[in-house]
Design a protein that fits this description.
The complex is a heterodimer of chains A (about 550) and B (about 350). In chain A, about 45% of the residues lie in helices and about 15% in strands. Chain A has 23 helices and 16 strands. In chain A, the strands form six sheets. In chain A, strands 5-12-6-15 form a four-stranded mixed beta sheet. A four-stranded mixed beta sheet of chain A has the order 8-9-7-10. In chain A, strand 3, helix 4 and strand 4 form a beta-alpha-beta unit. In chain B, helix 6 runs antiparallel to helix 17 and helix 14 packs antiparallel against helix 18. The chains are: A alpha/beta (about 550), B mainly alpha (about 350). The interface between A and B is large, with 45 and 36 residues.
């Protein structure tokens, strides 16, 4: 009897197991079947017939990627007050059902990768990495947006109005005409600033530095007066702080060493690296950092810390850091949690970082390199069978009225209107919290506050930083763009040598820059030259050569 | 007794050579041999299966698991020899150039890969050299402790770090070893010994890396040796005492030979990992000053494969790594058998 029972049990287990295996293919197999007819009906101009007054006669549904920042006290990025606003609007105006797919902000490339490989990628995908899209496109995983953009131009007035042909066809291949991705608009291209402690300058009776020499003397003055500035904590003094990302964190200093005579062509050919490491003159800029480091003017332990480490921020908040170069609004961000707010809490109400412009180039101007007006890249994976509905979605969120609401939210809740019409941002918690500043994750076609009026924008921007005096913001905004130069785009199509090289070359760059800053001064040339040689041999030179050849092919006929 | 239980006990005895050690060795091997070499083998095997088929039925479950989740996905190894495409199945992808070996050639002509290969071998070898004897020595020391309670407390403290993730250990290392603010360096400075660049200088970094590895795993690895030591017959120690052997004599002539099979087994398994590489330990501990020694194969795969989307290249490197590991495993096992040990299988 027992034997029979045990045999029966084993048999049940087996059946269960087989059923488990069997159900897997069974559940996946119908999905291609259901998608096939949808594809055939939506292809080409058959769609027009089903569209009345830009509204589908039959409800369509699309999926849209949204960044998940996992912010404290945030709402689910795929289902909250603002997504409901979009969902209702899309259903009302275009009869399109929208589902959001959350993707981790800091692991977006890896996650999108998995989704694409599984055939589950959202219909509208967003990423900051164009090389990623190019790689997918080469594998046949991306839809060519070109034909749709051209065919449906009349149906997309807001999208064309906001992004213009420039951003929409930014990535158009000059030979094949393919458009793998459109570029969102970078509305505010302020980039980087040099900050110094305003209260320390006052204490030491120093003027704001306006030249490299004055800046250097200021750093020495900070170091020599550590006792006065920090008292018992004098040992903690850091006149200038930096991170492993030298190219970003010394940007204004390095840019001042680039000859003003550099042509756009040179800039393009040597422009693969987004930290401009291949531009002429950079080496001498890094030499200055090397001198400072060996003189003890730079934070001595910076080379231990990697991306995302908050040690340096904490040193700034604690009041040990005299100056640094970073994102144009870095100390003013994050309200109560920000650097300026904490600094004033811990040190005193006078303590503040103020933006300065000390680095002039050989032509005597405060040259810095600003970004082109492009931001995130939006693409449709090849599994997207609703290209028109997807484009209508992009059109809908590009409409001023809609994106304005998404950026500033409800009056009296997330913003208040000042007497002069400027919008002041209010901190909010609960269901109407914005998970990203100005809901940048939902307004995927634009980055930067735009209320439709330039004057209003400037005023509102200064009020966009809760708890920070507007004069700091206005000044930072102005200096960040002062004497800026934008290298125009040269559209030569894909550079094959760049494929897959970005991360490897970027980490090589960071390594040798850090080593060049930290080595003894007499070894600087050797370390730099070896590092640069390695960078060029590992793919850098191939990229330069291909860029030069492509440039000659398309622009020097 | 129910038949199933009886069968289970039989099987346990039958399969003993694989799992059990020493004591019962003699008679079980005899049993195996007799079963395999007796004349009525075919009939016996049939009788055997007739009796135990339910157990084999049970075995089907784990076997199915391994086949479905470990063997079937393995065909994707083919992408090491193919041009990877995200939208094609592995059979449809075109073969890579150079008879499919394009990516192997690419890897071996890549300076970063060769550097990573060197670092992997160097760090693993040093780990083996310093890290392998450490738990044996600690186990011997613990075994000699006369107070059981003190022994237990020491052992617990020693194996606790095993549960810390490398991210936490790396954070602690920065707090302790940072050149200008680290606790250890402050202490060294106060003693007039000067500051040491534990984490910024390549040579010191390697030492710190190995040291932290031992610190993290020594206690945990001791457990298996201590278990082996308890299996040694106490009469042997008594006999040795009668012959006038001291502590060191007993350690050398009884304890160490007693745990030798365990040591050999673990050594073979470690050799099988000589080219394997952890990711979090070197990744968390490394920084931009020591990249030339901290860049190991797993980091190379991450950087080029996952971040750079060069899946075929990363798979080729991974396959190479696995093949070398398997070769080492077999070679070490064969060597161990040659020297009279039992080996892993």
């Amino acid at each position: 009897m027992r034997r029979t029972i045990s045999i029966l049990l084993v048999c049940f287990m087996l059946v269960g197991l087989l059923a488990g295996c069997g159900s897997e293919p069974a559940s996946t197999s119908p999905s291609p079947d259901t998608s096939a007819p949808a594809e055939s009906t939506s292809a080409g101009s058959a769609q027009d017939a089903e569209l009345v007054d830009r509204k589908f006669t039959k409800t369509r549904s699309i999926t849209v990627e949204v960044y998940d920042r996992g912010n404290d006290g945030g709402t689910p990025p795929e289902n909250n007050f603002y997504t409901n606003f979009i969902k209702e609007g899309m259903l009302r105006d275009h009869n399109v059902e929208v589902t959001f797919v959350p993707v981790g902000r800091w692991t977006e490339v890896e996650e999108i990768n998995n989704l694409l490989a599984a055939g589950d990628a959202p219909d509208i995908c967003v990423t900051y990495s164009y090389p990623t899209i190019q790689t997918y496109a080469n594998m046949g995983g991306v839809l060519d947006m070109g034909p749709y953009l051209r065919e449906y131009k009349d149906l997309l007035p807001n999208l064309y109005g906001l992004l213009t042909e420039r951003n929409l066809f930014w990535n158009e291949d000059p030979e094949t005409g393919t458009v793998w991705a459109i570029e969102a608009l970078l509305f505010n291209n302020a980039r980087i600033n040099t900050f110094v402690r305003e209260d320390w300058l006052k204490k030491l009776n120093l003027p704001e530095p306006t030249t490299l020499e004055e800046f250097e003397n200021m750093l020495r003055a900070f170091k020599n007066n550590a006792q006065l500035l920090l008292g018992s904590e004098a040992k903690q003094m850091i006149p200038f702080s930096i991170s492993y990302d030298i190219g970003w964190r010394a940007d204004h200093l390095l840019a001042a060493f680039v000859p003003d005579s550099m042509t756009d062509k040179e800039a393009y050919i040597n422009g693969f690296d987004d930290r401009h490491i291949l531009y002429p003159g950079i080496k001498e800029g890094v030499r200055v950092l090397n001198k400072w480091y060996n003189e003890g003017l730079i934070w001595q332990d910076f080379n231990l810390y990697g991306a995302g480490d908050t040690t340096e921020d904490n040193l700034m908040k604690a009041g040990y850091v005299g100056s640094f170069i970073h994102n144009w609004d870095y100390p003013y961000r994050n309200g109560e949690e920000g650097i300026q707010a904490n600094l004033q809490k811990l040190v005193g109400p006078d303590a503040a970082y103020i933006a300065v412009a000390p680095f002039k180039n050989d032509a005597g101007v405060y040259r810095k390199f600003l970004a082109n007006p492009i931001d995130r890249k939006i693409f449709f994976p090849s599994t997207n069978d609703e290209p028109l509905a997807s484009l209508l979605y992009l059109d809908w969120i590009s409409k001023l009225e809609n994106r304005r609401f998404l950026q500033i939210g409800e009056e009296g809740v997330t913003h208040e209107v000042m007497p002069d019409g400027a919008i002041k941002t209010l901190a909010v918690t609960g269901e109407k919290i914005m998970n990203s500043p100005n809901n940048i994750d939902y307004t995927i076609t634009i980055n930067g506050l735009d209320l439709g009026d330039p004057e209003l924008n400037a005023k509102s921007l200064a009020l966009n930083y809760a708890g920070v005096d507007a004069r700091y913001i206005e000044r930072a905004f102005e200096l960040s763009k002062k004497d800026g130069r934008i290298i125009p785009q040269f559209n030569v199509g894909e550079i094959k040598a760049e494929e897959g090289m970005g991360p490897a070359l970027a980490s090589k760059r960071d390594n040798f820059l850090v080593q060049a800053v930290c080595c003894p001064p007499d070894q600087f040339d050797a370390v730099w030259d070896a590092g640069m040689q390695d960078y060029l041999n590992s793919g850098g030179q191939a990229i330069i050569d291909e860029r030069a050849a492509k440039f000659a092919q398309f622009y020097e006929k | 007794m129910p038949k199933l239980v009886q069968a289970w006990l039989d099987i346990k005895v039958f399969s003993a050579p694989g799992v059990q050690n020493m004591e019962s060795k003699g008679d079980t091997t005899v049993k195996t041999v007799s079963l395999q070499s007796s004349p009525g083998r075919g009939y016996k095997a049939l009788a055997y299966f007739k009796r135990y088929w339910t157990l084999y039925l049970l075995l089907l479950l784990p076997m199915t698991y391994f086949i479905i989740f470990k063997y079937i996905p393995m065909h994707y190894i083919l992408i090491a020899f193919k041009k990877y495409s995200i939208v094609q199945s592995v059979w449809e992808m075109p073969w890579a150039a150079n008879n499919g070996f394009e990516y192997f050639i690419k890897a071996f002509s890549n300076k970063d890969f060769l550097n990573a290969l060197r670092n992997t071998i160097m760090l693993n070898f040093l780990d083996l050299l310093c890290g392998f004897p450490a738990p044996i020595i600690l186990a011997l020391l613990l075994n000699e402790l006369p107070f059981p309670r003190y022994k237990r407390v020491t052992q617990t403290i020693a194996y606790m770090p095993h549960f810390l993730s490398w991210i936490i250990i790396a954070g602690m290392a920065k707090q302790l070893f940072a050149p200008s603010t680290g606790l250890v360096n402050n202490a060294l400075d106060a003693l007039g010994l000067g500051r040491v660049e534990f984490l910024n200088d390549p040579t010191y970094w390697v030492i710190t890396y190995i040291f932290l590895g031992i610190w993290q795993s020594v206690g945990w690895n001791t457990i298996i040796y201590l278990a082996a030591i308890t299996a040694i017959n106490p009469e042997l120690y008594e006999a040795a005492e009668m012959d006038g052997a001291g502590r060191f004599r007993k350690m050398w002539h009884i304890t160490l030979p007693g745990i030798r099979p365990t040591i050999v087994t673990l050594l073979i398994l470690s050799l099988g990992r000589i080219l394997g590489s952890e990711f979090d330990r070197p990744y968390a501990l490394s920084n931009h000053m020591v990249n030339n020694v901290s860049n190991v194969i797993s980091i190379f795969v991450y950087k080029y494969g996952i971040q750079g989307l060069q899946f075929s290249l990363a798979t080729a490197v991974g396959l190479f790594q696995s093949v070398v590991c398997v070769i080492f495993l077999f070679a070490a096992n064969a060597l161990a058998k040659k020297f009279g040990e039992r080996g892993v299988w």
